[in-house]
Design a protein that fits this description.
Blueprint: E1 3-8, E2 22-27, E3 30-34, H1 47-51, E4 55-59, H2 65-68, H3 75-78, E5 82-87, H4 97-104, E6 120-125, E7 131-133, E8 136-143, E9 149-154, E10 158-161, E11 177-183, H5 197-203, E12 209-215, H6 223-235, E13 239-240, E14 246-248
Parallel strand pairs: 3-4, 4-5, 5-6, 10-11, 11-12, 12-13
Antiparallel strand pairs: 1-2, 1-14, 2-3, 7-8, 8-9, 9-10
This protein binds zinc ion (2 copies).
């Protein structure tokens, strides 16, 4: 069984008690984080799971700060672990994952530095190609966003597509999966770097995903806007994610 715990369901900044991009995935003896936004702080809810592992793999969709700033919280949770951070690297970017994150986490900005928040920290580029974490296959697909971002597929269990516009033609022949975590930033297509619930509702094929949960929600929504998005989502059976939500698949 694969277990997913949503730790950060917002994009950009925490709002309404919800942190930014992060989900914990436990599958086939591996423990993984999808992105490492401020939602890493919610690992406080998962101490019993963390205690059972000595290795944590972090799969980054891209390097935007709302997806990586939680790396500096890991010292509280992962001091006993080996942490492997997988990021896009080349050719999508000019520099490596280590280059970017060692800049962001340099000691003048974060006292533990880029290698000090766990027993061992490794930075790995997936270079736009599928890769293995132990026996678990991670599929990678490039997306359209303001900077290159990547869809991440954990076997045929979880597909994580965040920080992307929705291209209907990319989803026609996509392999089925049990769970889709897809970003939802707006009601209708206003911002071409992101996805609207309307485009997802009309363009996502039926029966490809057992469950669709919307993440990277927009912290700028007021209650009326959020309710409108939620109503539209429900019509297709999609749910808006909340922090602490656990999904067993
Ligand atoms: Zn983001
Ligand atoms: Zn982004």
């Amino acid at each position: 069984m694969t277990k997913v715990c949503i730790l950060g369901s917002m994009g950009w900044m925490p709002a309404a008690g919800q942190q930014t991009a992060c989900a914990l995935v436990e599958t086939r003896g591996q423990l993984m984080l999808l992105d490492a936004g401020t939602g890493v702080a919610n690992l406080a809810m998962c101490q019993d799971i963390l205690a059972r592992y000595d290795r944590l793999s972090i799969l980054l969709s891209h390097y935007h700060l709302d997806h990586v700033c939680g790396l500096m919280y890991l010292k509280r949770f992962a001091a006993h672990m080996r942490v492997d951070v997988y990021g896009p690297g080349r050719p999508a970017y000019e520099r490596t994952t280590a280059d970017y994150l060692c800049d962001v986490l340099q000691e003048s900005m974060y006292s533990s530095g880029p290698h000090g928040f766990a027993r061992e920290v490794n930075y790995v580029d997936y270079d736009g190609k599928d890769f293995m974490v132990g026996d678990v296959r991670v599929g990678v697909r490039v997306q359209r966003h303001s900077a290159p971002s990547f869809e991440l597929r954990i076997e045929d269990d979880v597909v994580y597509a965040t920080d992307t516009c929705f291209d209907r033609e990319n989803w026609g022949n996509v392999a089925p999966a049990k769970l889709l975590l897809h970003e939802c930033w707006q009601l209708n297509s206003a911002d071409p770097r992101h996805t609207s619930v309307e485009s997802l509702s009309s363009g996502l094929p039926r029966d490809t995903f057992g469950k669709v949960v919307l993440v990277h929600l927009n912290p700028s929504w007021n209650e009326t806007e959020r309710a409108a998005v939620e109503r539209k989502a429900r019509q297709r059976g999609f749910a808006l994610a909340h922090d602490g939500q656990t999904i067993a698949i």
